[in-house]
Predict the 3D structure of the following.
Amino acid sequence: MNNSSLDLFFAIGGIFGFLASLMAYLITYNEYMHHYQTKKEPRKMATESAIVAFVFFFLISLFAGYVLINFINK
């Protein structure tokens, strides 16, 4: 994988990871607000969900880039 392709997939992964983490945070926070009296616990759980979503989408993007460049593009 050359450097420009790697940069492209890092950028794509960062963008989609950010969007996925934002949506995961908002959805999780909204749902957990119905079940807790305070805001501390829903924020913590929503932040954990956002981190997991970001990591997942970022790694999937890098994996997809690796597959596209090394196996499909030959």
Remarks:
- The mean pLDDT is 89.
- Helices lie at 3-32, 40-72.
- Residues 14 and 68 are 18 Å apart (CA to CA).
